[in-house]
Amino acid sequence: MADDRRTQIARNSLLLKSFTEQQTDMLLSMSHWHSYQRNQTLFQQDEKARSIHIVVDGWVKLYRITPNGGEAIVSVFTKGQSFGEAVALRGTPYPVSAEAVTDTEVLQIPAAAVTEMVRRDPEAGVVMLAATFTHLHALVAQLEQLKAQTGAQRVAEFLLELCEREEGSCLVTLPYDKVVIAGRLGIKPESLSRAFSKLKEFGVKVSRNNAAIEDIQRLRDFSESDPAAFWNKRP
């Protein structure tokens, strides 16, 4: 990826675009670009946090290892999104591990650089708090989705987020492995297959890593409908 393009993506990220141009220039001058291959680890759970990460290309998953040895996916980040702000500034261990689920490029901002900037300008601390709250709100929304939607509705919403248009038909490419998609949506891989089968009723055809959506609005109506309605349907 050309330097000017990736730098622009980083500048337009939710985190950096909230800083002044001078502050952003300073952070970029002290940061490092890193490329990761698919399945390569960025950092491990309980490793001391030293950097804030901004994804400039590809996808990164954050996950925890459960007591029974399983993997619980906490979130998935893509181009223009940042993570690790809170723990990096506190210098505490990462509560999760991070792994590239596709070939990925990441900008790593040293926590020490951000800490020094906040010391010089306390207003920069407000920006960091805003980024942290954005992640918190995203997790709350994810929890609400798990509680309020069926598995098929969660998959429908996931597909809609990948659409580049608001209406009509659309062909989307699944960005990463279906096992990761299932984990991100809080369902089992076999349930994901059943969800894709269910979505055929609403004009979705999945072939390998592509999903053809016949009518975006029809799929959106399904994703936003009351799950209780399905229990009340008669055979």
Distance between the termini: 54 Å
Reading the helices and strands in chain order gives HHEEEEEEHEEHHHEHHEEHH
Average residue-wise pLDDT: 86
Class of secondary structure makeup: alpha+beta
Radius of gyration, CA atoms, in whole angstroms: 19 Å
List the total number of helices: 10
Strand tally: 11
Strands side by side in the biggest sheet: 1-8-3-6
Shape: globular
**Estimated helix fraction:** 40-55%
The biggest sheet amounts to:
4 strands, antiparallel
Extract low-pLDDT stretches.
none
Strand content: 15-25%
Characterization of the model:
The chain has about 240 residues and is α+β, with helices and mostly antiparallel strands. Helices cover about 45% and strands about 25% of the residues. The protein contains 10 helices and 11 strands. It has helices spanning about 5-10, 20-30, 85-90, 110-120, 125-150, 150-160, 180-185, 190-200, 215-225, 230, and strands at about 30-35, 40-45, 50-55, 60-65, 70-80, 80-85, 95-100, 105-110, 170-175, 205, 210-215. The strands form 3 sheets. A 4-stranded antiparallel beta sheet has the order 1-8-3-6. The chain has a 4-stranded antiparallel beta sheet with strand order 2-7-4-5. A hairpin with a 5-residue loop joins strand 4 and strand 5 (about 70-80). The mean pLDDT is about 85. InterPro entries: cNMP-bd_dom, cNMP-bd_dom_sf, Env_Response_Regulators, HTH_CRP, RmlC-like_jellyroll, WH-like_DNA-bd_sf, WH_DNA-bd_sf. Keywords: DNA-binding, Transcription, Transcription regulation.
